[in-house]
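dumping this here before i forget
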Amino acid sequence: MTAGEAGGAGQSWGYPQPSGSGPKGGSVVRRILLGSQLRRLREGGGITREAAGYSIRASESKISRMELGRVSFKTRDVEDLLTLYGVTDEGERGALLSLAKEANVAGWWHSYSDVLPGWFQTYVGLEAAASQIRAYEVQFVHGLVQTEAYAHAVVVRGTSGLAEDEIERRVALRLARQKILVAEHAPHLHLVLDEAALRRPYGDREVMRGQLQHLIEISEQSNVTLRVMPFSYGGHAGESGAFALLSFPESDLSDVVYLEQLTSALYLDKREEVEQYERAMAQLTEAAPGPEESRDLLRGLRQLT
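structure:
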């Protein structure tokens, strides 16, 4: 793990029609939605990626990256592709070209690009656009519910040789992400924390006591559901480690599973793979004590700290 970019937060994207626009969706989601629309139009017209690439003076791989939402879009390229795909209706063309402009707007997190790994920028964009975030954590307290002191301790422990200003920038990024939980259209955070994440110390006793108290308080928010998976339960469905499930208000955007690795991350959206993680989350939720009993566990751990 990389000091827990998301938790402490080979891609297989295949997204499909945007339903509304606005800043919450973010450039990442807009790129994915536009790319999937272009892919649908290309395939509907029986046009190969090679032919599409030729029409915009680009390679087949460039078309693939565009359709997966991994690159920005030039207006001229989108116009030429829509012409090639036979899209002549001005309303449809206008909607897709507007989406292309939205997709190229930089998200707030781009101001942290000096400390934000390229592979993690995608996650931050998806997280900001999500209507529901379900996550299981075993190593760290999840980044969206960390205190500043705990986040500082995690960053310091997880990286070595960083200048203090860079450490502070990383912590500031983590705190900035947390603003989504109090936004007007805040997502619902459904979080299962393994007891190991709560007993593993980051910082001194006061840092851990403060973190446990923060979890007790934030778990009272109407859009936050927090459960603790106690050691006493034994083995459970989270045996493969930490993961996050992101769901979106756009009906055509499939759920995404995020798996963080040491130097990269894996994003899964194939239905059969997502369903396995949904089952695991459902089993973890059923096995773990409910929110009130979990708060009692947190209070007990705070007293022991």
